[in-house]
Amino acid sequence: ADPLHAALDDLTTGDDPRGSIIAAWRDLERASEVAGRSLAISRTPDDVTKMLADLSGDRDATEEFELIYLAARYADAPVTNASRERAITLLTRLQGRVSAGVGGDSQ
Fold it and tell me: Which of 1, 8, 26, 98 has fewest C-beta within 10 Å?
């Protein structure tokens, strides 16, 4: 299955926004393999963000999604449905750009 679709599915299911956001990020990590862009085993969130920005041509959305992921993964603060909804909005935007073939060099 398409990792971007899988990420959206993960974001829209389940009762735990934190777990949904983290699962979606892992799907995005797998997107590099589908795109033929192998990331190093020691990849960082910035590596994933750059790859997705290159595919989508939308660095702003990918960087904001990374911040949501980092907060879900590492912060002690509760992760709300508002964060999940924002992640869904961003990922939908990115998916549309990738599907339309808008990507390219995002720098």
Answer: 1
Residue with tokens 């085993």: 41
Structure confidence at residue 106 as a pLDDT band (50, 70, 90): very low
What are the DSSP calls for the chain, one per residue? --HHHHHHHHHHSSS-HHHHHHHHHHHHHHHHHHTT-PPPTT--HHHHHHHHHHHHS-HHHHHHHHHHHHHHHH-SSPPPHHHHHHHHHHHHHHHHHHHTT--S---
Exposed (0-12), middle (13-18) or buried (19+): which is 13, by Cβ within 10 Å?
exposed
Does residue 38 or residue 98 have the better pLDDT? Answer: 98
Do 69 and 22 meet the contact criterion of CB atoms below 8 Å apart? yes
Q: Are 11 and 88 in contact (CB under 8 A)?
A: yes
Task: Look up residue 32 and give its amino acid.
Answer: S
**What would the pLDDT profile of 48-104 be if each residue is shown by its tens digit?**
888 888 888 899 999 999 999 999 999 999 999 999 999 999 999 988 888 777 665
